[in-house]
């Protein structure tokens, strides 16, 4: 008897469209945050000082969606097919982002950093970036785990969470998940108190924070789905988006982060996933949510190489505030357009081809 899964099992289940829309809102917030943390390094003066919590929202959303999509069918499709599907969904943009990162590093008009480190280091940075191997060697860029495309740090932990889900978590009873979630919550509080903020995970000196963040939020998202905590409400996409933006623009405080950030991560973000899953989608916002959800991951994975160019521009040209008020908004819009082009003409065709190959082998 064949152990190959039926092709029908590979079909994507229906999306929670408002959650897709919220993912796009969070991705745009991250892009704005990355510009602003260079333009205004003091997070307490940054109007999107807590936008990095979008990553915790992504982790929570991922746990919810993975449990929804695979809890009932992982045994049938098998670990190998599950991991192939996740690679097809995630990895093309990892490689695309690495290529863009290498090109931006080589041809940055405001920096000679590529010349200083040389082609040998560039090759190693590119290979490790493509294969998701942390390589924090660039001192001038804060020892990012993945210098060519820093947001890959969260994908590194996403992969670990997905593998752990397929091998262990999918088999665990909810009581055990509750214990793990409780441990994760304690670690969130500990890390926030120890470091002053939960904003770590991206660099060589704070890599453990990434594991703590994904541990809690991914498991919390799984529990939201498994326990059926979907809050049916007449609130729509706009209302829930405003609530999410209120979190991401909440004041950053060196004095109070150890209280505010754990409260947001432990309680508010899972609540927003519950709310978004049960909110009412009005027809006028269907296309917006679909487009927002589709664009969110490409935007997240291709924007940062250009942030490095902005960083070099800031160092060399010392632009005025009035100049930045033009440069940053225009750059955000251009990056959204660029992400759409990459998604439409590169990522989607590659993923369709790879998925067709898998289905053709069944």
Structural class: mainly alpha
Radius of gyration: 20 Å
CA-based shape: globular
The number of distinct structural domains comes to 1
Strand content: under 5%
Q: Kindly, what is the distance between the CA atoms of the first and last residues, rounded to a whole number of angstroms?
A: 13 Å
**Low-confidence spans: pLDDT under 50, at least 5 residues?**
none
Biggest sheet layout:
none
> Roughly what percent helix?
over 70%
- Please provide the count of β strands: 0
**Element string (H = helix, E = strand):** HHHHHHHHHHHH
Mean pLDDT: 95
Number of helices: 12
Structural commentary:
This protein is mostly helical. The protein has one domain (about 5-360). The protein contains twelve helices and no strands. Helix 1 packs parallel to helix 8. The radius of gyration is 20 Å and the shape is globular.
In short:
With 362 residues, the chain is mainly alpha-helical. It has helices at residues 17-39, 54-70, 74-106, 113-130, 152-167, 174-195, 207-226, 237-248, 257-278, 286-302, 304-317, 321-360.
Offer a few descriptive terms.
362 residues, mainly alpha, 12 helices, globular
Helix and strand arrangement:
Layout: H1 17-39, H2 54-70, H3 74-106, H4 113-130, H5 152-167, H6 174-195, H7 207-226, H8 237-248, H9 257-278, H10 286-302, H11 304-317, H12 321-360
Helix pairs in contact: 1-2, 1-8, 1-10, 1-11, 1-12, 2-7, 2-9, 3-4, 3-5, 3-10, 3-11, 3-12, 5-7, 6-7, 6-9, 7-9, 8-9, 10-12
